[in-house]
Design goal:
The structure holds three protein chains of three kinds. By secondary structure, chain A is an alpha/beta fold. Chain A has a single domain, classed as P-loop containing nucleotide triphosphate hydrolases (Rossmann fold, 3-Layer(aba) Sandwich). Chain A is about 40% helix and about 25% strand. Chain A has a six-stranded mixed sheet, sandwiched between helices. A four-stranded antiparallel sheet of chain A has the order 2-1-4-5, covered by helices on one side. The longest helix of chain A is centred in the C-terminal third of the chain and has 18 residues. Chain A is globular and about 70 Å long. Chain B is mostly helical. In chain B, helix 4 packs antiparallel against helix 5 and helix 4 runs parallel beside helix 7. Chain B is globular and about 65 Å long. By secondary structure, chain C is an alpha/beta fold. Chain C has two domains: about 30 residues; about 110 residues, no CATH class. In chain C, strand 5 and strand 6 form a beta hairpin. The longest helix of chain C is centred in the first third of the chain and has 26 residues. The chains are: A alpha/beta, B mainly alpha, C alpha/beta. The interface between B and C is medium-sized, with 31 and 24 residues.
Chain lengths: ~270, ~260, ~160
């Protein structure tokens, strides 16, 4: 099985502060891989590096055979036609209807006739179960429905690689389950490869093939869902079972409580 | 002594920031122009923005134009009466509107009505990751989102300024001729012999075109560069209104100086 | 909003703008397509043009027949060369005279043409020979005072 995404010895930093340190990561073709970690650990940055929105400071990011470090701006735009991305809150175009949102890429990038675009768009909406909603505006949709429309929009041109940025954030349990199942189903039926960035452990363990744990800019653990569940690494254990104290301490470093209180009391 | 030095330092710092900002806006304008070809191919996008920037500003422009013209008629008549030349009130109304008030006042109204809306819209699209999403769909947001709004503004403002002037002259006519009773014939004929097509009307249109470019560039720039937060977008909207109003007044001074002295 | 209604509104907007342009150009301004296009140019040399400006009106019998196109100093003859653009529908004999007059007491200055009797007409590039420059108020007053002074001194001399 070949790898669609290969990241080797990646360093990345904003200004001089390194956010990602020595990342090595591969995503085999056709698989569904999750990148997990706490908020602010650099996992969204990793996703943006795969989409070519950020450039690696050191090391290489290879996606679908293209070395992203070497691509020019125009080549990056051409490369992105192979990608689909689902943003955290959907990022639907608020001035376009549901139908126009899904048809957006077809109209921008293809010369398909309007009747063909209409059929294709309704099929994509049907795949996420929202064909009946095509005339609505994004502001009229609930969070879960907006996320599904955004998913239909992302798969509009049958991308080789799907990137999901926190797809489960802010959803009720039912919508959450629906989105999770859709991600798995679309990955398998369309033959796509998917990378999922999330901190929702329970939902992702149900659907993904392989998991990378990122903490403080480095990969601290990796494995299949079963391996992760059985892991005795303290960090992974704390993360999965949501324990209050562990390697990630409950208290942020501070002066002693006694010192602070005396100061307040004068 | 140190107060003076730090005062000078603050002034210098601010000046540098302003120059830096002008440079950033200029290079943004340049990249809009480069990416405009794609948006001209699908002109319906620009027509949509003409609707939002131009048609939706119609009411405020027409009403303000009428009122400004009426006030000019009243004040002009009052002043000219002292010299016994109240017949020239038409000249006064027409020249002030066509040369100055039409382009400048409609530009100021446009900056606060349409410019702020453009900034807020682009800023919110950025804050809700719509621009990022577009980039990831291999569509350049400058040519898809920014350029149509820019050209919509550039097309709309000269038309609005013409409407403002025309409305104002009608307002002046209503006050001076219909209400006060200045002779209608001399109102129009004196106006016609004093207002020159090239020197007054065409120059007025040139002014409003320049203002349209400045306001649209500032409004789209502020939206595009707005920090993606609620305060970021509201701050950018305020900055659009303030800096494009100042830009209009400063450009007006420069353009008027050149137009009065001749371009060579 | 439906695209067709949107287009309709933009169409109305553009038409309104265009009509106000027409109103400003023809009703408010002096644009006149029928006459302003075709003119012929004749020159006239004046000793003094006073306050005459470019684009000042040219009138004959009080009727507007053209506008001053250019004014420049003739460094050979040391006088002012004025180019007159006259509407081609108006023909003037070659012995027409040009003078610079003032409309009203303090009004703007204009060029007045008085037709002569020749049967040949002025054409593009010709020169008007008979000219009368502007009356300069200071000179007039100076002359008046001078005459007055001379009058009084001569009457005083007679009284002695």
């Amino acid at each position: 099985m070949t790898n669609l995404v290969e990241i080797a010895n990646l360093n990345f930093g904003y200004n001089s502060r390194l956010v990602l340190k020595g990342i090595n990561l591969t995503v085999p073709k056709g698989s569904l891989v999750a990148i997990m970690g706490l908020s602010g650990c650099g996992k969204t940055t990793l996703l943006r590096l795969m989409g070519g929105q950020l450039r690696a400071s050191e090391g290489t990011v290879t996606v679908a055979g293209e070395k992203l470090n070497d691509l020019s701006q125009a080549e990056l735009y051409r490369f992105r036609r192979k990608l689909g991305m689902l943003f955290q809150f959907g990022a639907l175009f608020t001035d376009l209807s549901v139908f126009d949102n899904v048809a957006f890429q077809m109209r921008e990038h293809t010369d398909l006739s309007e009747t063909f675009i209409q059929d294709l768009t309704l099929l994509k909406l049907n795949a996420v179960g929202l064909r009946g909603m095509h005339h609505m505006m994004p502001s009229e949709l609930s969070g879960g429905m907006a996320r599904r429309v955004a998913l239909a929009r992302a798969i509009a041109l049958d991308p080789q690689l799907m990137l999901y940025d926190e797809p489960f954030t802010g959803l009720d349990p039912i919508s959450l389950g629906v989105i999770g199942q859709l991600i798995r189903k679309l990955n398998d039926t369309l033959g796509t490869t998917s990378v999922l960035v999330t901190h929702d452990v329970q939902e992702s363990l149900k659907i993904v093939d392989y998991i990378y744990f990122v903490s403080d800019g480095v990969i601290v653990a990796q494995g299949t869902p079963d391996e992760i569940r059985g892991s005795d690494l303290p960090f992974v254990h704390q993360f999965i079972w949501g324990e209050m104290d562990g390697p990630m301490p409950f208290h942020y470093p501070a002066q002693s409580l006694k010192h602070d209180l005396e100061l307040m009391g004068g | 002594m140190t107060n003076i030095v730090s005062g000078i330092r603050i002034v210098g710092d601010r000046t540098l920031k302003i120059v830096e900002r002008i440079g950033a806006i200029a290079s943004f304008l340049f990249s809009i122009l480069i990416h405009s070809a794609a948006s001209f191919k699908r002109f319906s996008l620009t027509i949509r923005e003409v609707y939002f920037a131009g048609v939706q500003s119609l009411i405020i422009i027409l009403v303000s134009g009428l009122f400004v013209g009426m006030v000019l008629g009243l004040q002009g008549h009052e002043t000219l009466q002292r010299y016994g030349s109240e017949d020239s009130v038409g000249v006064l109304v027409a020249l002030s509107l066509v040369r100055e008030l039409g382009p400048v006042v409609s530009a100021l109204l446009f900056a606060s009505r349409a410019g702020s809306a453009i900034t807020a819209e682009i800023g919110l699209m950025k804050a809700t990751e719509q621009l990022s999403a577009m980039e990831m769909m291999a569509v350049n947001p400058i040519s898809r989102v920014v350029a149509p709004r820019f050209w919509g503004g550039v097309i709309s403002l000269p038309l609005l300024a013409l409407l403002f002037s025309a409305m104002g002259i009608i307002g002046g006519y209503l006050i001076a001729v219909v209400l006060i009773g200045v002779d209608s014939g001399s109102f129009w004929s004196q106006m016609q012999s004093a207002v020159d097509f090239e020197h007054d009307i065409v120059n007025g249109i040139i002014k409003s075109l320049v203002f349209g470019v400045a306001i649209s560039a500032i409004a789209t720039f502020e939206g595009y560069e707005a920090p993606p937060t609620a305060e970021g977008v509201s701050g950018a909207t305020t900055r659009t209104v303030v800096s494009s109003s100042l830009a209009v007044l400063a450009l007006d001074l420069v353009l008027t100086a050149f137009m009065l002295k001749g371009w060579n | 909003m439906e695209r067709s209604t949107l287009n309709l509104w933009v169409g109305i907007f553009v038409l309104l703008g265009f009509f106000s342009f027409l109103m400003l150009a023809f009703k408010v301004g002096n644009l006149n397509l029928s006459s302003s296009n075709e003119t012929y140019i004749v020159t006239a040399h004046f000793d003094n043009i006073g306050q005459l400006k470019e684009r000042a009106p040219i009138r004959s019998a009080g009727v507007l027949v053209g506008r001053v196109k250019a004014i420049q100093f003739d460094s050979k003859q040391y006088n002012a060369e004025v180019k007159l653009a006259i509407d081609s529908q108006f023909k003037f004999p070659v012995d027409t005279s040009a003078s610079i007059l003032t409309s009203g007491i303090l009004g703007e200055q204009y060029v007045s043409l008085d037709a002569g009797g020749d049967d040949k007409y002025l054409k593009n590039g010709d020169q008007i020979k008979l000219v009368q420059g502007a009356v300069v108020l200071e000179k007039l007053i100076g002359q008046f005072l001078y005459n007055k002074a001379q009058d009084t001194s001569s009457t005083k001399g007679a009284a002695k």
